[in-house]
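Entry 14. Structure prediction run on the chain below.
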Amino acid sequence: MSKKIFWFLLAALAVAALLGPYASSYPDGLERVAEDFGFLGKSEGKAVLQSPMPDYVMPGITDEKGATALAGAVGTLLTFVIIYIAGKAITFSKRMSRRDRYVRS
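Output returned:
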């Protein structure tokens, strides 16, 4: 991992952990419209998947701001790892494809 990517990850983690607890507690736009027009209850149903961090809060932590900050940091780190691995796989695949074309010619 280059230094540039490392600093970008560190900045993203700092933003997620420090600003996450201060995010708006009001419902998002779609939820607000559903409340206003009275069909919010129709969206309730059996969950297909269980979220490991429901409502952007890390379970098991009693301090709400700390639980939100930790959930933001964990979510940011997991997203980074998934994107980083996908990027490496794509780069490796392209490199192998170029090598195969070079060997055939």
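Helices lie at 3-19, 29-36, 64-104.
Filed with the rest of this week's runs.
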